[in-house]
User: Fold this.
Amino acid sequence: MLRIGCHLSASKGYTNMIKEAINIGGNTFQFFTRNPRGGKAKDVDVEDVKKFLELSKENNFTVILAHAPYTINVCSADEGIRKFGIDTMKDDLEKLEFVPGNMYNFHPGSHVGQGVDRGIELIIEALNQVLDEKQSTTVLLETMAGKGSEIGRTFEEIKMIIDGVKLKNKLGVCMDTCHVYDAGYDIVNDLDGVLEKFDNIIGLDKLKAMHLNDSKNPFESHKDRHEKIGEGSIGVSTFEKIINHPSLKKLPFYLETPNELDGYEKEIKLLKSLYKE
Ligand code: FE
Ligand code: FE
Ligand code: ZN
Assistant:
C-alpha cells in the first residue's frame, strides 16, 4: 500500500488534520509543530490527541511527520538564536511524546558565513542536547537545496552530522525531491545512481521519509521553489519511478506542493494510480 499524505495546517489540531487527510485519500500527513513565523506552541489538547489516536488506528494510518518551524537555525553564529532553536526542538519533542512513535523533521540550518565545518559542529552540538535516550520520536535531517549557506545540500554533510551525534538510533533522513534535484542530484536521469550514492555515503537504512515536490527551477538551481507534481522540471515519470523504486516504495511520502486540499487530493489520486503493489 502506498503511504501517502500531504502537508496540512495544524491550527485546528490533530483530529481535524486526520479527518482532512482521510477525506483526500491519505493515510498520513505532515504539519508544522508551530507557526513557522515564530510564536509559542499550543498546549497539548489531551482530548484531541485521544480522538486522533482512535481515528489513526481505525483508518490504518501510518507514521505522521511533524515539521519544525523552518525559521529556527541551530547553527547560527548568534548564541541566542541557537538556544531558541534548541529550546524549540526540545519542547516540540516533549509534546510529540503524546503521539508516540512518529517522526520530526527539521532543516539542519544555515551557517551564514561561519563555514560548513563550523555549521556542522554546531548542528551536532544541538542534536546532542536535544536528543534523549527515552524519546520515541525519530528526528529527521532534511536534505536541502543549498540556498544561501544552507547545510545539508550534500549527502556528505548529512553524514558528517550523523557521525557526530551520540544517539544515532534516534536520527534519520528525509529526502526532499525538489531539494536534492536543486542541489545537483539528478534524480530525473539517474535515480539509481543518486540512491547508490546515498547508500554508499549515508546508508539507505537511514532514509525514513520523502517529501515529494516538483521543482519550479531547472536542475542544480539552489533556489528551493516547489511546484505541483508534473508541472515542474522533475515531471510525473520520475515520481512514478520514485514511489515504485524497490528501495523507496515502502517509505512514507509527503506532498509539499503549492496546493489547497483539492489539489492535494488530485495528486494523491494520481500517485495511487501510478503505484504498483
Ligand atoms: Fe522542510
Ligand atoms: Fe521539504
Ligand atoms: Zn523546500
Notes: The chain has a mean pLDDT of 97. Residues 68 and 227 are 21 Å apart (CA to CA).
